[in-house]
C-alpha cells in the first residue's frame, strides 16, 4: 500500500511530482540506453514516451498498484521501447547507402538497348526480385508515387508497412547487386 500515494500523484497529474520523477532517473536511463546501442536522441525520446505511458496507465486506471519500484516500472516500459527501436533498426536499410541503386533505378530505361555495366547488374538483380518488390520499387522510384499512394494502390493497411516493405526490398536488391 505504500505505493498508493505515488499512484494517486500520478493520476492527479501533479506537475511538480512529474518533473521530480522525470529528472530523477533520466541520466541513468540514457546511459543505460546508450549501452544497449540506442542513439542519444532516440534514448531521450524513449524516456519521454515511457513517462507518457506511465501517466496514461495511471490516469486510465490500468496501473492500480505497483509491485515494484516506480523506477523499475519506468525502466520496464522503456526497455520494451528500446527493443522496439532496435528491432526496427535491424529491419531498415540506410537509404543513403543505396544512393547508387536509387540513381540507377531512376535512370534505368529497360527498353534501351545499350546499358551501362551497373544498369545491367541492376536489371538482372531487379528481375530476380519478387513481384511485390518490383511493384513497390517501380511505383516509388520510376512512377514517383508517394508511400501513401502506394499504400492505396497495393492495398497495404498502413504507411509504415509500405515503408518497411520498401526498405526490405531495397535491402534485397542491394544484396542481389553484390552477387
From TrEMBL:
InterPro entries: RNA_pol_sigma-70-like (IPR039425), RNA_pol_sigma-70_dom (IPR014284), RNA_pol_sigma70_r2 (IPR007627), RNA_pol_sigma_r2 (IPR013325), RNA_pol_sigma_r3/r4-like (IPR013324), WH-like_DNA-bd_sf (IPR036388). Keywords: Sigma factor, Transcription, Transcription regulation. One of its GO terms (biological process) is DNA-templated transcription initiation. Residues 23-90 form the RNA polymerase sigma-70 region domain. GO terms for molecular function: sigma factor activity. NCBIfam families: sigma70-ECF. This is RNA polymerase sigma-70 region 2 domain-containing protein. The lineage of its organism: Bacteria, Pseudomonadati, Bacteroidota, Flavobacteriia, Flavobacteriales.
